[in-house]
Amino acid sequence: MRKLNSLVSYSLLFSALLYGACKGDDKKSDEQSLPFLISNESALQGVYGKEIPVKIQLNESLSELVALLGTDTLKFWKRPSGNLILSINTKESGIGKHDVKFIGKKPDGNLHDQIVTVEVLSDIPFSMLEAKVLTSFPHLPSSFTQGLEFDGDQLFEGTGDPSYTGATLLAKVDTKSGNHTLKTSVPTPNFGEGITVLDGKIYQLTWQQQTCFVYDKTTLKKLSEFKYEGEGWGICNDGKYLIMSNGSSMLVFRDPKTFSIVKTIQVATDKSSVSNLNELEYANGLIYANVWQEDVLVSIEPSTGRVKELINCFALVNTIRSAATKQTPSPEVLNGIAYKKSSNTFFVTGKYWPNLFEVNFIPKPL
Q1: Residues 103 and 163 in one domain
Q2: Exposed, middle or buried by CB within 10 Å (0-12, 13-18, 19+), for 212?
């Protein structure tokens, strides 16, 4: 996509941002009285790799018309005439929901705008898998698990603090016993979220405190911290970048040295966008994600956001629910996924779960 590339379009965009572009004129007016309208607004959904046509119906003369995606110009028309079509290149826009803003300038200088949402879904169906339990290990039922990751054969865990009593911590975990062999506490009101290990450091997000704490992975001593906007949910890394979720359908790639944003992707199946992405794990070229309040995991293609697999964990979750009826606090949602490279297996648990499960993901029987 191109940046605004003419003095006329710069002027048009500046005027629209400064004065709100008349806010789309009076919404109660008859559509035919508007200078232009998007005639297929209700059908702006397509799949990755195929263009999505946006049909523009002109009802009166315009001196200029521009279509914007963020601050990028999709197309600029000088004295447009007739009915127009804007083709959205979905490989450039990417998967997910995108707002496209049209700004028209009348001959008298007045502006009119219209914003439409274009949704790009995956062009491939996802595979259905299920989690097969290989081994069950103890897990501290007092741990409100928010982050889980192996570094070699050492398991690390980060917890949250729903009662704000100082329960947020970062710990080394002995897998066989479930005990914490070394831990560091995080003071209230910090609510711990996802963790990841990269280049000898552990990064731990906080939920609404907009802070990422950085620790030495050997001593768990705090080294530094970063600030960010919005909520922090899950985090993993691909060996180069940190990858962060915020509870939406978006994943944010960040530079580990500065925490600045490198790129963002949205996540979708061939049916719909996938929101509530939570705890993350990177393994074998894919991003694995817990989906908050769902008993499933999804695997995601990092370059596009396409969902490759949906992993059913119903049986595993039901085992916890049926076996821990008298536990206090009661087990909550599935949350926590860690890949162990030496065994090529995954470990999963949940908030206040008494067990940590070693699993494989296998095709789900029809």
Answers
A1: no
A2: buried
